[in-house]
Amino acid sequence: MKRILNLALSLPISALALLSPIVHAQSSAATEAAAPRFAIAIHGGAGTIEKSSMTPEKQRAYEAKLEEAINAGYTVLEKGGASLDAVVAAINVMENSPLFNAGKGAVYTYDGAHELDASIMDGRNRQAGAVAGVKRIANPINLARMVMEDSPFVMLAGAGAEEFARSRGVPMVDNKIFDTEQRREQLERAKEKLDQENKQDKDYRAAVEALPVPFRMGTVGAVALDQQGNLAAGTSTGGMTAKRFGRIGDAPVIGAGTFADNKSCAVSATGHGEYFIRYNVAADICTRVAYQNKTIAQAADEVINQILLPVGGTGGVIVLDAKGNIALTFNTKGMYRASRIAGQPAQVAIFEDK
Ligand code: ASP
């Protein structure tokens, strides 16, 4: 039976700030107005994450890395930094960790290489940048930001994106630095499964769809609201295990895997990219907020649980609005996730029941 989960944290910052002992002790109107309003949420992929298949050591390792990532972004915001910087700081921690399917821990393509996708969006002005299918960039989210800030384009792909990177002084790394034993095993298992499916005369798409969710899990993303009231969102991934023919998922597609607009919300998605592209997931959530006055929790629930799930689209989103409300919504058994709002400790969770 498919399980549905809408884990929406309704966290109005002003309300929580009033409850916090520090602000409470000095509860003048002036102090409340001056209370910093900022928040950040991250994900490290959604899928079949079950307690039974997770050792305590592995769980602790994920929780520690999620906490490190959320705190890296939070620290930027706390110091008055921009939401874009917070998003990049949080994502870099996860890109540099072999635990996640982004940067260092990226999955393998069918041909045994790694092709990385990333995108970022600025909620102030809908500026955006993305890179797709890059093989020699250690931190694709940084390059996506360069495309946004230092080129007239939104999305650059493959060799051209790397040429742009080189022209901007970004060091090229060997594709082998993304190799990990765990992902190599996943590729072998995925290829076996694909070959079996093909023997049964199914086409490649059907074969890919028959792969269990873990073969494509671990994309990372972040959404942030800074003290200036600006939203930003970013997503980075190695895509889907055994992908081929230059397949690009939703992560670098603005509106599908990433979206941010101060007038509605910021979203980063993870899940079966083909569905997230066709259902324009990130933008659809923010459009419901903008034009239908939905809360982010309602909008995310509608798109993830009521629209995607019935058609077979698995995955989740992290959503943040300009008031600091956070929704962490997924239709899978778990989603690596964390959130932190001004003055509060970080909340880290993996499974559907935490
Ligand atoms: N959305 C990613 C992709 O389809 C994969 C994931 O998030 O698990 O490339």
TrEMBL record:
<keyword id="KW-0645">Protease</keyword>
<feature type="signal peptide">
    <location>
        <begin position="1"/>
        <end position="25"/>
    </location>
</feature>
<keyword id="KW-0175">Coiled coil</keyword>
<dbReference type="GO" id="GO:0016811">
    <property type="term" value="F:hydrolase activity, acting on carbon-nitrogen (but not peptide) bonds, in linear amides"/>
</dbReference>
<keyword id="KW-0068">Autocatalytic cleavage</keyword>
<keyword id="KW-0378">Hydrolase</keyword>
<dbReference type="GO" id="GO:0006508">
    <property type="term" value="P:proteolysis"/>
</dbReference>
<dbReference type="GO" id="GO:0008233">
    <property type="term" value="F:peptidase activity"/>
</dbReference>
<dbReference type="InterPro" id="IPR000246">
    <property type="entry name" value="Peptidase_T2"/>
</dbReference>
<feature type="binding site">
    <location>
        <begin position="270"/>
        <end position="273"/>
    </location>
    <ligand>
        <name>substrate</name>
    </ligand>
</feature>
<keyword id="KW-0732">Signal</keyword>
<feature type="binding site">
    <location>
        <begin position="247"/>
        <end position="250"/>
    </location>
    <ligand>
        <name>substrate</name>
    </ligand>
</feature>
<protein>
    <recommendedName>
        <fullName>Isoaspartyl peptidase</fullName>
    </recommendedName>
</protein>
<feature type="active site" description="Nucleophile">
    <location>
        <position position="219"/>
    </location>
</feature>
<feature type="site" description="Cleavage; by autolysis">
    <location>
        <begin position="218"/>
        <end position="219"/>
    </location>
</feature>
<dbReference type="InterPro" id="IPR029055">
    <property type="entry name" value="Ntn_hydrolases_N"/>
</dbReference>
<dbReference type="Pfam" id="PF01112">
    <property type="entry name" value="Asparaginase_2"/>
</dbReference>
<feature type="coiled-coil region">
    <location>
        <begin position="177"/>
        <end position="207"/>
    </location>
</feature>
